[in-house]
Design goal:
Elements: H1 2-12, H2 16-23, H3 28-34, H4 39-45, E1 53-58, H5 71-81, E2 87-92, H6 96-107, E3 116-121, H7 132-146, E4 151-153, H8 161-171, E5 177-179, H9 188-197, E6 203-207, H10 213-218, E7 229-235, H11 249-258, E8 263-269, E9 287-293, H12 296-305, E10 311-316, H13 323-332, E11 338-343, E12 346-347, H14 348-358, E13 364-367, E14 372-373, H15 380-391
Parallel strand pairs: 1-2, 2-3, 3-4, 4-5, 5-6, 6-7, 7-8, 8-9, 9-10, 10-11, 11-13, 12-14
Helix pairs in contact: 2-4, 6-7, 7-8, 8-9, 12-13, 13-14, 14-15
Length: 403
């Protein structure tokens, strides 16, 4: 009995920094409950360090799997700890009410010094259903009052050019990362304003329709720091859209000359007839992800015109073997280290030749067994040995899960 009493006393006498570490791993509700255990734990509950990083979860319980943050706790955080918040994210479900609640909270953060802000919707439309004026005014509160924002993720939101100008006016010296794909109220001029003024920008994620020769040249000027990541979503904004603009090779060259180690990541969600403007001349893309079917012709262009390619993922192609295209990619894309193939076809001999030419530099090789077509030289049973030999490690094709 005496031992248990001492153990209880030890829990109450734990140093503040130990209790703080424990609290940082608790949900907000559990953290609040733990604060009532004893006076020392309650003191830790109000230490500013505990409130620098926080995620608000907002949802409608009847339609969401998210565990919503209790409104009373939200008000307590805003009242007592708004000035301590530095790394803040809002995770909302698809309901407009949840997004409106997030905007209401943003509007109250007038005494904050936020460095990282993320608005995350687990499903569309969410923020896009909020009145544009309400969303922009709420976001502007943070942009004006923080003055030290370094990372912002505001995908699928009604953010617009004027609000970006407010962001730049108040945070141009600190902004390093801006992710804003699928923001239809932002124009190329708005992105260009960010690129011109935020000289510390290191990572930019946007839709292809916002990409321009002017933007790449702005990112390539002497006053701009070295860009580390440029992420581009290539998505049809309108059903049936088949016209995409082209980017000049000279503009791409200027960017790479200025930022020689920049990763250029492109995510494609197009139909085959929409690919025509892409990769007709050399493009310094490093990572390519095709979420829908892509033609043999397009993969052939990649082998010819993407010498900096590091990673390639093709979700689907059809029923035409890609042997020649893969071998060309192996020969010309000397930096390729990762490849994944989904609903495609490659002969076993062609695949072995591809791996042989890439050699041990392929650190990631994900191929479904159904992709491989047995031929006179190799069967499915033999191919893992041949591929493993050229990779220098044990390898097996991925198996389709059975349920």
């Amino acid at each position: 009995m005496a031992y248990r009493q001492n153990a209880t006393e030890d829990w109450g006498n734990l140093p503040h920094h130990v209790v703080l570490q424990v609290f940082q791993h608790l949900s907000l509700v559990d953290r609040a409950r733990a604060s009532s255990v004893c006076r020392r734990w309650n003191e830790v509950f109000h230490i500013p360090d505990l409130w620098r990083r926080f995620e608000f979860e907002l949802n409608q319980p009847a339609t969401s799997y998210l565990k919503s943050t209790h409104p009373e706790l939200i008000q307590q955080i805003i009242k007592k700890h708004a000035q301590h918040l530095q790394y803040v994210s809002f995770k909302v479900d698809s309901c407009t009410e949840s997004a409106v609640a997030a905007c209401d909270i943003l509007s109250q953060l007038v005494n904050c010094t936020i460095k990282t802000l993320g608005l995350i919707s687990t499903a569309r439309p969410s923020f896009m259903n909020v009145a544009k004026s309400h969303f922009v005014s709420a976001l502007t509160v943070v942009f004006v009052n923080s003055k030290s924002l370094s990372s912002i993720k505001i995908d699928d939101t009604p953010v617009d050019d004027p609000s970006l100008k407010v962001l730049v006016a108040n945070n141009s010296d600190t902004l390093k990362l801006l992710k804003m794909s699928s923001c239809p109220h932002v124009s190329p001029a708005g992105i260009l304003c960010v690129a011109d003024q935020c000289h510390g920008l290191r990572e930019l994620a946007l839709n292809y329709y916002l990409l321009s020769d002017e933007l790449l040249l702005a990112l390539s000027t002497e006053k701009h720091v070295l860009l580390e990541h440029l992420r581009i979503d290539v998505v049809s904004e309108n059903p049936g859209q088949t016209q995409f603009h082209s980017i000049k090779k000279s503009s791409w060259d200027a960017l790479v000359q200025h930022s020689p180690t920049v990763s250029i990541v492109m995510y494609f969600y197009l139909y085959e007839e929409e690919f025509d403007p892409f990769f007709r001349e050399e493009t310094p893309v490093t990572h390519l992800y095709f979420g829908q079917a892509v033609s043999k012709e397009m993969l052939g262009r990649i082998g010819l015109n993407c010498p900096r390619l590091v990673e390639l993922v093709v979700c689907a192609n059809g029923l035409q073997p890609l042997d020649d295209e893969l071998i060309r990619i192996a020969d010309r894309c000397k930096n390729l280290t990762a490849i994944g193939l989904g609903e495609c076809e490659v002969t076993c001999s062609g695949f072995v030749e591809f791996v042989k030419r890439c050699g041990g530099r392929l650190s990631q090789l994900s191929i479904m067994e159904e992709v491989l077509i047995p031929d006179s030289k190799y069967s499915i049973e033999q191919i893992h040995y041949e591929v493993s030999k050229h990779l220098g490690r044990m390898w097996f094709p991925d198996m389709m899960p059975t349920w």
